[in-house]
Amino acid sequence: MSIRWPRILTPTCLSQIIRKQNNPQTAYQLFKEAKCRYPDYRHNGPVYATMINILGNSGRVSEMREVMDQMRDDSCECKDSVFSFAIKTYASHGLLEDGISLFKSFGRFNCTNRTQTFNTLLEILLKESQLHAACQLFQECSYGWGVKSRTQSLNLLMQSLCQRGQSELALHVFQEMDYQSCYPNRLSYLIVMKGLCQDGRLNEAIHLLYSMFWRISRKGGGGDIVIYRTLLFALCDNGEIEQAVEILGKILRKGLKAPKRAHYRIDLDQCRNSNLTIEEIKSLINEALIKGGIPSSDSYCAMAVDLYNENKTDQGDKVVSHMIAKGFRPPSLIYEAKAASLCKEGKVDDAVKVIEEQIVGGCVPTIALYNIVLKGLCDDGKSTVAMEYLKKMAKQVGLVANKETYSTLVHGLCLENRYIEACKVLEEMVIKSFCPCSNTFNTLIKGLCSVGKHYEAVMWLEEMISQGQLPHVCVWNSLVSSLCCDVAGIDMCSRVL
Asked: Which residues form the signal peptide (predicted)?
């Protein structure tokens, strides 16, 4: 396509031009052409970031590497997030060694902060089960000038150790944090607490709880309630009901800083002598933590989201009802967690009602909530209903469907063999300047071939290629086989090849 270049080119203008291109290769050509057309023009950090993002998302790793090298040679000031994205791109294409090399060459770039990049690489190494390499990276690089905080990186290491059943070692790392000149946050305590409880190290878990009382819980933080539940439930599962109730009292007094008049006590005799099940006792503990502490939005939100994540929808609803009764408005995070929980349980129709619940609650449903519900509907074979909600989104002010929305619908329609409708959704997606990923194209083209829609398949193949993407080998095979099955398709097959 022809580009109307401005009389004077600015970096902001160039960013807008290259973002409008459907083909990443065209965007890259314009990026390079800019300096030739305007000798006095110089790229800045945001332009480089835009170009790297476009190339990385389209899988053009070699071109992305060229732009990174050019940014280094220009000594252009850039943000930490650019390197974090590049390393994720390398890793997703099986080029983790290139990502490590990029990190080691960080000093040659004009960037003073590498905390996010460091944590990104550390997280990738741990996900790849390269614990030794991750520890070596931490020892060699975490003390440099570019890493501003080590709390998140230590959290990542402790989480990896706990997942491997090495909570004792994770606890040792936790205890060394003070000597590392960094301080544990709420997530640090939660990671280690869960690890110790899962490994049955309840004595260490109790001591960890007491250390919270004089550190992060001195002001009675409501968000700590999830950590308390973890320990109390572990004690119940281990049959130590009395100790759980005793510790609950200390949590109410010292952790949640609740006044005596607000304490909601559990009857110890009832726990000892009745036929209550463990789940019923846990339910009582949940009520005690909610009603016994000082009401706060943080505590209600933390408890509700935790219950929904555990697929305990009924108990989560009780917390939300109590939250509303106390005058707090549930945040979007609660509705999203509830919808996700219902979809996991296969209660998609109930998940749909969550959207209406949020509207009645005085909040505009978020795109994240819609995407959760749409995915649940499509996975349940109800893409027709999902399409109706896409239309509703278009009528709602401030709510715009994104790439995830369209991709979910295309895949959902394809799962039900409704390929023509999927074509319409994909067409709308392209018109709104969202670039479908290769998997979306591959799924639709292969499906169109399976139902003999040769023309539509070739059309989307051409669109895919125009965006600088290549179909999978199996898609080529499906297309050629489908076209060669009838005489009319042979000429078309020759043209495509």
From this structure: none
